[in-house]
């Protein structure tokens, strides 16, 4: 699973609508409205590297109200939460 963190500048008057539209894009797992230099941060999770372009460049960046995106691809996850457990179907080997 590949994870990308996407920083998004939007039309300030449309932040809630833009966030909702981005959240509906397949591959986008979460969208946060934040303080600071950007308006939104989206987490994109896909299985293949090529799918990042499909989600971010072809869909997220084209949502009406998105002015600019900046993408960071995660190398490793450091967390107290076990992400693999979140995808566990309960099937034993």
Automatic annotation (TrEMBL):
GO (cellular component) term, any one: cytosol
Span of domain Transcription regulator AsnC/Lrp ligand binding: 6-76
GO biological process, one term: response to amino acid
GO molecular function: sequence-specific DNA binding
Pfam family, one: AsnC_trans_reg
Protein name (Swiss-Prot/TrEMBL): AsnC family transcriptional regulator
Protein source organism: Cellulomonas cellasea DSM 20118
């Amino acid at each position: 699973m590949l994870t990308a963190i996407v920083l998004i500048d939007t039309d300030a008057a449309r932040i809630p609508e833009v966030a909702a539209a981005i959240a509906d894009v397949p591959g986008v797992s979460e969208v946060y409205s934040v303080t600071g230099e950007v308006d939104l941060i989206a987490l994109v999770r896909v299985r293949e590297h090529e799918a990042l372009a499909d989600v971010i460049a072809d869909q997220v960046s084209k949502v009406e109200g998105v002015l600019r995106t900046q993408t960071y691809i995660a190398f490793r996850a450091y967390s107290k939460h076990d992400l693999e457990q979140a995808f566990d179907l309960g099937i034993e080997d």
